[in-house]
Design goal:
46 strands, 940 residues, alpha+beta, seven-stranded mixed sheet, 14-stranded antiparallel sheet, Immunoglobulin-like, single chain
């Protein structure tokens, strides 16, 4: 795996020694794992977390001054004796940080041993440890729990502006605007967390929209949690079962767990109207207090971590916990030796609850037949402090915790797994940090998953456990245990430890294709198609969504216009090109300018969330903050293309473009104005569509391709602006998302779905936190279900077939679609023929019929579809064995034709000629100078 490197240090030192009558600025490149971007880049390698440390040195070097050869721990802050008011949760890592001698943030490496019983007055010891390189840090503090007056941590959203805010030639609204829809303000969150923009579109964000999260599903996978009057639901959903429906003569399918709640954890101190409050969150963790009032004591604090086999809880009253199983099933209890408990009382530090033959689904068959019920044994392991007393009353366990106030609950597969999960059941993940770095030379994206832990007992394993998803372990060399979970996401494999890294390659993204040169291509026909696009896209006509009031439909009209600019430029059709430029300018500047109370198209910044949405609430982009990346992505894509061909637009409206882009692709964490990668789940590896995720099955994502297009758009804009941090964020997001899409929406390796699902279809139209559907929100036609994953048509879609193995699978997926349609495409011809062209452009060319597209849902896509089909016939297939080193301002994609010739299309939207390099496994192949403001094809 790639190790973090200190770049340029020796060169700097040599330069310092050689200087005489001047001041030397020493620049040391290092890496900060807790940040995600930087303004300083290296032309050969770079990371998303580069910090430049600048110091002034005298010209005469003191020979006694030594610069360490290896990095060491420099300082640890916030580790000192503390006091805490009884009844209020104590967070051991709040305000704690560490840094190395070279300036590297080591906070993610801090681990804590010990616990604080915040419900019992007394003194508690915590030991803080860091292991870094060859250095080691350990410090023990005392936390005193007393009965002083409780003063909560303070915080608030920054004071927002009010009215029209100008940015360049553009403007937007903020503050009071009663003429448009708005979301509810975020609630049920600790005040100090308001200092940063509030996240949405997450796996747990239902907790910010409704008390108890509305009882909606919070899927950590392998477990499901939810908050009800009965307490915290803890359910092992397993991999569910498959249900079939037959609406309108079309087959739809879903794989999901049965809607039965296995168990509830509760404190008897809670009343039936208790509230939940988010105490903390990080990249894959949320910590929630259950309490009787917002000012009241924290009765039960729950830590939910994606991928953790455990749910941890800490209680205010350690003699008030109950664990209640569903009363509709026989319950058996076992001790830690796997022996059945036959009395009503048990003492020790753990117990196993067995649900005997729990109803888990039905053996169904198409088209809509409900078969026999299915049953399975389920096991839950409770890990508690020593000397805990368990009182058994049928399906209810009453717990008097012994030497501590903590408990963890894990699902296990059988009694043979008791010891393993018990030994690790006392180390809780407290903070998760998921950060990326990019090696420019190799075009590799390295994602580091770091986890701070708290070990409640020093006589048990200090190693945490994580159940990795397929898109984790398939791209990592982390050692895995023999333990696993079967879920709707496939097999999760368990690792020990608090760190792993994945490696994914970035193979380039482009806004379109260069001029086709195949025999079937007709420039005359293309010009005719462009003229049709120009004629049908009228400033006053509602056709082709150009003047549609809804931001989603209106922004979709921009995509074919942007492609039209590229095509017209390649054909040197200046009149058409400038017509398309004018029309793009018209719509974009309309959205990017507020013209007064009668304006129907403008942007609004919501200070309560730190989010940007539209004056129109179609698809609830405002009222629930939904579909932001989808919709924004179309506008950003159009702006990025326009920036290449209209320099004044970039200068005049660039700040407005970035206001919108920052809403979904902001590359910094803990910012007051914008949330980090708002729609993206860094653990699940993909976007979530709904702003709150207020569904029983958790959040959901339908159109993966529109999610990919949003990364593509952000990447292209970053190139135009020479913006390294946004470029790196887009690269990370795109490669991670497409790796997850291949796993969970298409099951490329045919390992994740239930065979009853995968034997019928090769696509999931929607993926939820706890299920996946062969369906869409808007119809059951297979063309819709497959097609919503393949629009808008564009070069970025060729990433589905980067190598021979992927190509064969992608071909099989398309064949399954055609089989579902009896071999005949019935609609969305432009989308389906471009997908066919990725597989076999000859077939797409032979089937192409302009009239079918012109009379279909998206006639504006005619020119773009024709261009893409013929370009792919000219280029061949993607070739991932050759890559361009990542270059700020320039991108390319590599193709190989049937004769083995390799080509690169290269996009350079900058004002300068740029030298680029192409590599393969053996090293540098060729260096090429790419002209400024060009889109060209070169032979490698």
């Amino acid at each position: 795996m790639k190790k973090i490197m200190i770049l340029g240090l020796m060169i700097v030192l040599m330069f310092m020694v050689s200087c005489t009558n001047s001041t030397v600025i020493t620049t040391i490149f290092t890496t900060l794992e807790n940040t995600t971007s930087a303004d300083t880049t290296s032309l050969t390698t770079n990371t998303s977390t580069t910090e430049v440390i600048t110091t002034t040195q005298p010209t005469t070097i003191d020979s006694t001054t030594a610069i360490p050869e290896t990095d060491t721990i420099s300082s640890v802050l916030g580790v000192d004796n503390k006091t805490n008011v009884v009844g209020h949760y104590f967070d051991p890592l709040y305000g704690v940080s560490a840094v190395s001698e070279f300036g590297k943030d080591l906070t993610a490496l801090i681990n804590v041993e010990g616990y604080v019983d915040f419900g019992t007055i007394g003194e508690y010891q915590l030991t803080y440890k860091i292991e870094y390189e060859e250095d080691f840090y350990s410090e023990t503090i005392t936390v005193t729990v007393n009965d002083d007056l409780y003063v909560p941590l303070e915080g608030s959203r920054p004071i927002g502006l009010n009215g029209v805010i100008s940015m360049g030639d553009g403007s937007y609204m903020t503050g009071t605007d009663s003429s448009i829809a708005h979301p509810i303000n975020p609630g049920y969150i600790r005040e100090h967390l308001l200092n940063s923009a509030i996240p949405s579109s997450g796996w747990w964000t239902t907790l910010l929209a409704q008390n108890n999260g509305g009882g909606n599903g919070i899927y950590t996978n392998p477990l499901r949690a939810a908050f009800y009057n009965e307490g915290l639901e803890i359910t092992n959903p397993l991999d569910g079962f498959v249900q079939y429906w037959n609406p309108e003569g079309y087959q739809t399918i879903a794989q999901f767990p049965i809607a039965l709640k296995d168990s509830y954890l509760r404190s008897t101190e809670l009343n039936s109207t208790y509230i939940t409050e988010v105490l903390d969150y990080s990249d894959s963790m949320v910590k929630v207090a259950m309490k009787n009032s917002i000012q009241g004591e924290d009765e039960l604090v729950v830590t939910l971590v994606q991928g953790s086999p455990y749910i941890f809880a800490e209680t205010n009253n350690k003699n008030a916990l109950t664990y209640t199983m569903d009363f509709g099933v026989l319950i058996e209890y076992y001790n830690l030796d796997g022996e059945k408990i036959t009395t009503n009382n048990h003492n020790g530090d753990g117990i196993i609850v067995k649900m005997v033959q729990r109803h888990s689904g039905y053996d169904n068959s198409p088209p809509a037949n409900v078969g026999q019920p299915e049953y399975t044994d389920k096991y839950y392991l409770l890990n508690t402090p020593s000397n805990t007393n368990f009182t058994i009353s049928n399906n209810v366990l009453s717990l008097n915790l012994g030497d501590g106030n903590f408990i963890s609950i894990a699902a296990i597969n059988n009694l043979s797994e008791i010891d393993f999960y018990h030994q690790h059941g006392y180390t809780m993940i407290s903070i998760s940090s998921i950060d990326y770095e990019i090696d420019y030379l190799s075009s590799m994206v390295y994602t580091d998953y770091n986890f701070n832990t708290q070990s409640f007992r020093n006589d048990m394993s200090s190693q945490s456990l994580l159940a990795l998803m397929p898109h984790h372990y398939k791209y990592s060399d982390i050692a895995l245990t023999e333990y696993s979970y079967r879920t709707v996401r496939g097999t999760l494999k368990v690792m020990e430890g608090n760190y792993f890294q994945t490696e994914l390659m970035f193979n380039g993204l482009l806004p379109g294709f260069t001029l086709p040169v195949n025999e079937n291509f007709s420039s005359v026909d293309t010009v005719a198609y462009l003229e049709s696009l120009d004629a049908e896209t009228s400033y006053t006509d509602m056709e082709n969504f150009f003047n549609d009031g809804g931001p989603y439909w209106n922004s979709k009209a921009l995509y074919p216009l942007a492609q039209g600019i590229i095509i017209a430029d390649q054909l040197q059709e200046e009149t058409l090109k400038f017509s398309f430029i004018g029309k793009l300018n018209y719509i974009l500047t309309d959205w990017f300018t507020y013209d007064g109370p009668s304006d129907e198209r403008y942007l609004y910044y919501n200070n309560s969330w730190g989010s940007v949405y539209y004056s129109n609430d179609d698809f609830a982009t405002a009222s629930t903050l939904s579909d932001h990346s989808f919709t924004h992505g179309y506008l950003i894509y159009a702006a990025a293309v326009l920036a290449m061909y209209d320099r004044s637009f970039k200068e005049d409206y660039g700040l407005m473009v970035e206001l919108l882009l920052d809403d979904y692709m902001y590359p910094e964490k803990d910012d007051a104005e914008f949330a980090y990668l708002r729609n993206f789940d860094p653990w699940a590896g993909h976007t979530w569509a709904h702003g709150f995720g207020t569904f029983a099955e958790g959040n959901n994502l339908e159109s993966t391709s529109e999610a990919l297009n949003s990364w593509n758009a952000g990447y292209l804009w970053a190139l135009a602006m020479n913006d390294s941090s946004r470029m790196e964020a887009a690269i990370y997001g795109f490669v991670t998302e497409i790796s997850a899409i291949k796993e969970y929406w298409f099951d490329y390796d045919e390992e994740n779905w239930d065979p009853k699902f995968g034997d019928y279809t090769d696509v999931a139209g929607m993926v939820w936190g706890g299920k996946h559907d062969y369906a869409t929100w808007f119809g059951a036609n297979p063309t819709f279900i497959y097609g919503i994953q393949w629009l808008p048509s564009g070069e970025y879609l060729t990433n589905y077939a980067l190598n021979e193995e992927d190509y064969q699978k992608f071909s099989s997926i398309y064949a399954t679609y055609l089989q579902a349609k009896s071999g005949e495409i019935d609609t969305w011809f432009s989308n389906m023929w471009t997908i066919q062209a990725i597989i076999n452009p000859d077939v797409a060319i032979s089937e192409f019929d302009a009239n079918l597209i012109l009379n279909d849902d998206y006639p504006a896509e005619l020119a773009g579809a024709y261009w893409m089909i013929n370009a792919l016939d000219s280029l061949g297939r993607r070739n991932s064995s050759i890559w361009m080193g990542v270059e700020l301002g320039v991108s390319s994609s590599i193709y190989q034709d049937e004769l083995g010739n390799d080509y690169a299309m290269v996009w350079n939207p900058t004002n300068s000629d740029v030298d680029i390099e192409f590599y393969n496994a053996n090293g540098l192949i060729i260096s090429i100078t790419v002209p400024a403001n060009s889109f060209t094809k070169v032979v490698i």
